[in-house]
Amino acid sequence: MRQLPLTEEWFHGAVSLERREGGIKPWRIPYMDYELYPPEGIEGKAEICAGVRLQLRTDSTAVAVAFAPLADDAAMDCLAGEEWFQTANLPAGTTEALFSGLPGGIKVLEIWLPQSIGMTVTGLMIDDEAAGVPLQDDRPRWITYGSSITQCVAASSPSRAWPVIAAAACGFQLTNLGFSGNCHMEPMIGRLIRDLPADFISICAGVNIYGAATLSPRMFKPQLIGLLETIRDKHRDTPLLVISPIYGTVRETEPNLLGFTLPMMREAIRETVALLRERGDRHIYYQDGLDWFGPDDAAFLTDGLHPGAEGYELLGRRFRGMREAALGAG
Questions:
Q1: What confidence score (pLDDT) does residue 22 get?
Q2: Vertex 199, ends 28 and 270: CA angle to 5°?
Q3: Which residue, 50, 86, 180, 273, is the most exposed by fewest CB within 10 angstroms?
Q4: CB hemisphere CA count around 157 (13 angstroms)
Q5: Which residue in 194, 144, 197, 130 sits closest to 174, CA to CA?
Q6: CB of 163 within 8 A of CB of 144?
Q7: Model pTM?
Q8: 170-199: pLDDT as tens digits
Q9: What sign does the CA torsion over 33, 163, 69, 121 have?
Q10: How far apart are CA 11 and CA 7, in angstroms?
Q11: How buried is residue 252: exposed, middle or buried, by Cβ count under 10 Å (0-12/13-18/19+)?
C-alpha cells in the first residue's frame, strides 16, 4: 500500500486539529485553549474522537489508517457510499486499522474514528495503483451538545452512535460535542458553539447537572439563558433545538443533593425556551425528552440512565421525525 499525504483536508467533525510529531490529533475544543476548559480539557473528554471521521474519494479496494498506540480497546467503522462496510475492533496497543475487500471503482469512503477514546492519526494508506483525494463536505452543518448520551460510548461502533445515524437521515455534516459526564453548560461551551459555523444546533442538557449537582434550581435557568444567549451572539437565526432529558428512572422522582429532579429540569427548560420565544427569538424550539425516549423505552436502559447500543440506534432513527415535529410546531 502507498501512503497518502497526511493533511487536515481528510478530517471532518473536529473542532481543531493538532499537528504532532508524526501525526494529527483531532480535538473537540480549540486545542490551543486547552487550559480554558478545566479540568484537563473537559475532564479529558475533549480529545475523544466522537463524531470525527476521515473522508476520501478513491478506487482503492483497501484502505488503512495508522495511529499512535491506543491506550484502550476501541473500534473504527468504514462506510462506503453511506453504507456500513466494515468495523475494525482494535485492542489496546493497536497501531493500524485495515479495511479490505472494498468494492471496485470510484467511491466515497468515511472512516469513523472511535467515539470512546482519543487518537493521533499517523498515516492514511490505499492500494499502490489507486487514487485517493479528500472530500469537501457541503452539507448543512449540525452541532449537537450533550452528555454521555450524546457521546455514545456504548454504541456498538462509532457510526452507530445516534448523532451519526441522525445526521445521515437529515443530510447534515456532524460536529458532536457530547462530553460524557461533563455537560454542565459551562460559559466556554457557549462561546465555542457561538464561534463555530452552524446551520442547525441542538442541545440536550440536564442529566449531568442532576448527577453531579453542579447547578441548583436557583441557578439552572440563569445558566441556560446565558448559554443560549451567548450562542445567539453569532447565530441569531440558526434553528436551535433545546431538548430536555430523556427518561431517567429514579431520577424522575428522587431529588439530587440540591433538591432537583428531572421533571423540574424539564419544566425549567420549557419555560426558558418559551421566555426567549416571547422575547422575539422565533428560531428556538423546545422538545420534551420524554417524547423522544420515554418510560415505555425503559427496557433499553442498561443502568437506569444510558440507552445502550440498541437504544442509541433507536434515538438516531427517531431524531429526524422529532426534529421536524418540534420545528414545525414552533
A1: 87
A2: 85
A3: 86
A4: 16
A5: 144
A6: yes
A7: 0.96
A8: 999 999 999 999 999 999 999 999 999 999
A9: negative
A10: 8
A11: middle
